């Protein structure tokens, strides 16, 4: 069985976006390097440092399912029907869209984080599931559904905005020591959630 990985690019003070949903300098590292890498969309290349490319190429190909919230879906228009990573997206929402122009896209609209992760894991099989940062991450962590955390730390301070763990108010969660990869304008911190 694959892993459930909570993942996002995060500011030094823990935000995945500002108060207007902007990412500012968080994503600078996606375009500042000489190595071209891709998620699921062959029309959306990233140009990153060699260290970031090695990290991406070791993790992204094993991701088969992505779990996102309705807010991110609306902000990106579901990436025009092409998953950013993996081959299927599970969108947590109480109200699926009725007029989205990509009805045949591999997007499934699910009520509740537990249902979304269960369906995403079933689809992924031996591959991994990624959960985006924000309230979903906090909910998944509180429910004990997260196996690993991929905290891609950008050297910027936002002061306020959308937190990586949303409004998480659960118990303390211990993590194992991180795997640390220093890229250009990003430090990849990859933790396992401690099981003991």
TrEMBL record:
GO BP field: riboflavin biosynthetic process
Bacterial bifunctional deaminase-reductase C-terminal domain residues: 113-170
One Gene Ontology MF term: 5-amino-6-(5-phosphoribosylamino)uracil reductase activity
InterPro entries the UniProt entry points to: DHFR-like_dom_sf, RibDG_C
Pfam family, one: RibD_C
UniProt name for this protein: Dihydrofolate reductase
Phylogenetic placement of the source organism: Bacteria, Bacillati, Actinomycetota, Actinomycetes, Propionibacteriales
């Amino acid at each position: 069985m694959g892993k459930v990985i909570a993942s996002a690019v995060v500011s030094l003070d823990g935000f995945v976006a500002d108060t207007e949903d902007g990412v500012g300098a968080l994503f600078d590292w996606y375009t500042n390097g000489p190595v071209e890498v891709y998620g699921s969309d062959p029309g959306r290349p990233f140009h990153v440092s060699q260290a970031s490319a090695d990290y991406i190429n070791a993790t992204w190909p094993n991701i088969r399912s992505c779990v996102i919230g309705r807010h991110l879906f609306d902000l990106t228009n579901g990436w025009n029907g092409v998953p950013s990573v993996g081959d299927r997206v599970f969108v947590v929402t109480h109200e699926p869209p009725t007029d989205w122009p990509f009805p045949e896209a591999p997007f499934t609209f699910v009520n509740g984080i537990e249902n979304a992760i269960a369906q995403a894991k079933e689809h992924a099989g031996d591959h991994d599931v990624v959960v985006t940062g924000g309230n979903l991450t906090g909910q998944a962590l509180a429910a004990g559904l997260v196996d690993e955390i991929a905290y891609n730390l950008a050297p910027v301070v936002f002061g306020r905005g959308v937190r990586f763990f949303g409004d998480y108010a659960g118990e303390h969660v211990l993590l194992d020591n991180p795997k640390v990869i220093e890229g250009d304008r990003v430090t990849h911190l990859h933790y396992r959630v401690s099981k003991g």
